[in-house]
Amino acid sequence: MTKFYIFFLRAIIGAAFAVVLTRFFYPDATPVHVIGLGIILVGLAYFAEYLRLRKSR
Length: 57
Known about the structure:
The protein has helices at 3-25, 31-56. By secondary structure, it is mostly helical. α1 crosses α2 (31-56).
């Protein structure tokens, strides 16, 4: 898989989880909060990958 394809999958899954989490815990959250949470989730996915690859060396 290419890096763009992996980013696209992570962005879609991050957006879906962000919508579900904000609607479940904060139903009156604005779309800006949902987008912010999605960005944080995708960033955490890349950070977890960095830690996983760093540990395997």
